[in-house]
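Quick look at the format.
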Amino acid sequence: MTAPNPTLVRRPPRLGPRGRRWFDALLVAALLLPLLPLGFSLGLVAVGISLIEVGPLLWRRRHAVAVFWAVTAAHAMQVVLIDEPTLGQAAWPVAVYSVARRAPAPHGWAALAVSAVAALTASWDWSLGSPDPFLTLLSNALLLGAVAATGWALGTLGRTREAYVDALVERSERVEREAAQQVALAAADERARIAREMHDVVAHGLSVIVVQADGARYAARTDPDVAARTLETVASTGREALTEMRRMLGLLRAEDGDGSAPALRPQPGLADLDALVAEARTAGVTVDADLPDPAEVGDVPDGVALTAYRVVQEALTNVRKHAGPDVVVRVAVAVARQGRTRVVELRVEDDGRGAAAADDGHGLGLLGMRERVSVHGGTVEAGPRPGGGFAVSARIPA
């Protein structure tokens, strides 16, 4: 068996839970690392506020909105207590990115609006003691706003991309499931077709062999020559059935054991009904056949011709199995025209025991007839005849 096809769209590589925890811890450590050499010069208040601003980033993935508001509160405290920037300012764009990346879009827009207000407030606070307050206010506001907007844009882009990739992966998996279902349905249809073919070949061949073998057994006592000829017919029928089975089983393999392609031959059709009738007569059944002229069946589609052949074959098989001795069978096949379409009409009827016979196992014969004919949009009727016997009739559009 071949391996299933890989997923059409693969997710990009992502960190696992442990990797994400380590990444956030290293990020917080990298933002706080400059405090070690600068801690004494910045003062205790600046160092404490920086720790409060950066520390919440450890939980930014699972609680992005809460972390953002915690960082916002710490920055508001910084504006009140200190009139200059601190190293903890770097936590702000990370918090904005986390909200835009992890939370729904409205939270991201709210974070962007708060960032604009915070940038103006911090810039105004830092410009109070500047020689050029307006220039300081403008430059700081633009810088802080641009940094916050960049974090928001990157987070929004990441969230949109993740949703897009998830949609592609989900669609790819759905397509794979649907393709697998189609393959399973096709395999089931193929198994049903093979079962019908095997039933037709085996049932037909064995029914002829059984009838001929019974005749040879009785003839062996009185007429050995008849028995010998009958056994030749049994052997010939058995060889034909085996050849047909080998042909069908060979189609299931890509190659035979020696690497050569399986031997193929044309499927039987309407032109082969003569041989089918002759075989039934050889088996001791009296058959009155009305078959179409070969010129009329030349342009009948191969599938329709094969279906008609199999229906007649199955009907004759059922006659030999169920109709009883000294039965007379009438086989009528014609290619008729109805308007612009042609129809293959066939009828096989006998005057034997008909419905009084025991049912054939699971009824695969009649079921196979109906399935074959329904594929071509035709109809099958099968049942007892008035006055005795059994009849099978079918109409197959050609």
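Next, a different chain entirely:
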Amino acid sequence: MIPPAPSLLKHPTVNRREMLRAGGIGLMGLSMSDVTALRAQAAHTGAPQPPVKSVIYIFLSGGLSQHESFDMKPEAADTIRGEFRPIDTATPGIQISEHLPLLAQRSRHWALVRSLTHGHNEHSNGHHIMLTGRSEMPRGFNPSKPMPTDDPTFASIVSATVQGKNHLPSAAVIPETFIHASGRVIPGQFAGIMGPQRDPWVIDAAAKCKKCGACPNCFDHQQRDWEHTGDPVFESPNLRLPDQLTSQRLGRRLDLMQIVEDGQRHLDRAADVAAMDRNRQTAISLLTSGKVRKAFDVHAEPDEVQEAYGKNRFGWSLLMARSLIEVGVGMVQVNLGRNESWDTHGNIFPHLKNHLFPPTDRAVSALIDDLEQRGLLDSTLIVMAGEFGRTPKISRLARFYKYPGRDHWGAVQSVFFAGGGVRGGTVIGSTDSIGGYPQDLPQRPENMSATIYDALGIHREAAWYSSLNRPHFVYHADPIAGLMG
């Protein structure tokens, strides 16, 4: 079992020990909020662990249509099959959308689960389900905002159960938090019942791109009036030392901080400082390691590499994910789709064809190629999903859209898996003739989350502990059978 996590402060007062910690952080030129954002609660079981891999979870906010992507129904009626046509992949018998030609060429590296199902059709519910791996809504769930009773997101679970490397957190989220244009912060992205101190490490690299859509092809899926901010903006956090703080001066500050901590340990030997030690190590690693800093600077990559991924939010996000995996971050969640961009109630065919599929096809294919060339594909599991699928029947909301689309549909969606030991050219599960419900081998979000945790080497009996020392088990189902080779 994982040992209990360090206890958290129970009262909003600041004691002498916390003042010393805050002062020590100040010596480094870092704020408490900086360190809190980098917190990684790491633990492990005493049992032998399988080889640890990495995971890149690509989340398509809004809901990818299975009919237009990975589970086409060309023989169905016009009101079901839509405008797109299937094309053959490199694997005989597997077809996907004509607008995903690069992925079609790489089918030896990926597998599809066409039968993932849950019972909710609302965006907030679906996000919570597919970002936490729990099918049922928690007590006190509020679709308008995150609640402390929410289930913890994948990144928080991984941070609590996987040891980080190079003094970095073991999980990260890029390039931004999901916040709807209305200002609604979408549930499911935070630590919930684990406590805010275990909220995931979010690397906000798209803060200056204020509009919605798939930069550089920004668009509003409801075609409301707005003005783009200009060129696509993707900036890594400023990880340089302040101009006045040279590496030599940083070293002197760290020596002084050691003196402060030695005195603190003498006075407070029983105090638990392990968590703050990890936070300090993370901050130092970010400031002093050239290899780590480089992982955040996608524009320092060769131009041909950036072009292969696509010089846009999709491409740069996946390029940064690859770099973070290389420097030791175990799981990277990549949020693709600002303001629920994949929510294709209307104009589904032009939006997918012109705005969403091209950067996704290009970036995911480049990620697969890049990982393979670097010898990392077999040890990196790529997962791509949204909060739900889309309705079998094409519909029309003439009030908002010029052309037809599909509505929300939690009953089934297709989930894409690549690398990480996946049996390439495999399809698990199927849907009925209209793509509305699983026909065989239905899978739940709990199976998907178990697959992710298993790939990361998390023990099947692993648990994280609350501040009340209550165990919460990580696994709630078995990994998807037949997916891994």
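The chain has a mean pLDDT of 82.

See the schema section for token definitions.
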